[in-house]
Design brief:
Length: 377
């Protein structure tokens, strides 16, 4: 239920009203955002400033785009370390709407703007790339897909010897599908390559790239014949986070929602203590235990989506993990409520330094069984 302005502290309510006016949006939209933050567990004051901060980031993005000069593409050299996988914004809207309907019912979903009177799912994107969405509140086309894909890796300028860790992102459906098909599905990670890209930002250690779809400079990756010492590149170009500092880093960096900033990442290294490949979680992720080789009491759990990250190693392997911190949750057996668990790392890339073979079960004797063909031509 969307909260009413009259129920909010006078000063904080006035701040929300002023925010709606300055951003030229209805007060109802602002109050919906405020309600969402309150329902996530925030107190009234924190929820108000979470809404204020959200609109601040939109304005900052608009200003950045307005002031950004037209940049030329550049060929960069490097290798991909991993990805979070394709994100379909349209499918996300559909899932959120269906989840809300399942929990609250159709009448409430209509009242909250998830569906219209004919039960069509509505486009909830108020803005697209910092600009008002002309289709906001209209039925979302059933076949609409809005893909976004980010690849992470190390990149250097032509002629340079210094590699910088960063990301390259595309919101073009065709290019996202091509990257998924030819990089993710074919596991072309840690493979020397070159790519055309536009540099959005860069400092001494990090770089953010934007893909281009221009015909003469499309961001299609191309393998290079040079042989690189991948481990040496990573070692020289990376500030590793000690396993013992993972939880502290999360607490220092998390946003009010409990999530990490989109550009936040960690790189940790250690020895694999276990691989729970036979017990994926509800989202299909495999849990890997990682310990500090110099202190066996320093441990962290790694969650791995095996559809985007290769699990080609076994227990006692030495690995580097690229990922984002997150607070895990578990269900209390007595109360049935979700409680905070340990801080884990959601991996978007794993580099195997020393590989120990996976442990396989004892082979079964099938010599006396009939042979059955599983595929007929």
């Amino acid at each position: 239920m969307v909260k009413k302005l009259e129920t909010i502290n006078g000063e904080l309510g006035a701040r929300l009203k002023k925010l709606a006016t300055s951003n030229k949006v209805t007060l109802d939209i602002v109050m919906q955002k405020f309600t969402t933050f309150r329902e996530s567990g925030m107190d009234e004051r924190t929820a108000v400033f979470a809404v204020v901060n959200e609109y601040r980031k939109v304005k900052q993005f608009q200003t950045f785009n307005a002031n950004r000069k037209q940049r030329e593409t550049e060929i960069l050299y490097g290798f991909i370390t991993g990805t979070n996988g394709i994100w379909d914004k349209a499918e996300t809207i559909r899932r959120q709407a269906n989840a809300f309907i399942k929990k609250n019912g159709i009448p409430m979903a209509q009242e909250q703007g998830f569906i219209d009177g004919e039960n069509h799912i509505l486009d909830k994107r108020q803005q697209i790339w910092g600009r008002p969405n002309p289709d906001y509140g209209k039925p979302l086309p059933e076949k609409l897909h809005v893909l976004d894909l980010t690849l992470y890796g190390y990149f250097r300028h032509n002629g340079d010897k210094i590699y910088k860790f960063g990301r390259i992102q595309t919101s073009n459906n065709a290019l996202a599908r091509a990257w998924d098909k030819d990089i993710i599905q074919k596991d072309r990670y840690f493979t020397p390559c070159q790519v055309n890209a536009i540099i959005d930002s860069e400092d001494k250690t990090d770089i953010a790239l934007r893909a281009t779809t221009a015909k003469d400079s499309e961001s299609v990756f191309k393998g290079v014949s040079e042989k690189w010492d991948i481990k040496t590149v990573i070692d020289k170009s990376t500030k590793f986070t000690p396993i013992k500092d993972v939880e502290k880093l999360y607490e220092q960096s998390k946003m009010p929602t409990g999530k990490m900033p989109f550009d936040h990442y960690v790189v940790v290294k250690g020895i694999v203590t276990y691989v729970n490949s036979d017990r994926p979680d509800a989202l299909g992720r495999i849990t890997v235990g990682l310990m500090n080789p110099d202190n066996e009491e320093e441990l962290v759990r790694i969650r791995v989506d095996s559809s985007t990250v290769s699990l080609d190693f076994g227990e006692l392997s030495e690995i580097y993990v690229f990922g984002k911190c997150a607070r895990s949750m578990y269900k209390d057996r007595e109360t049935g409520k979700l409680e905070d668990g340990d801080v884990v790392i959601d991996a978007f890339g794993i580099y195997t330094v020393v590989k120990t073979p996976k442990v396989r079960g004892v082979e079964e004797d099938t010599s006396d069984e009939d042979v059955i063909e599983g595929w007929l031509q």
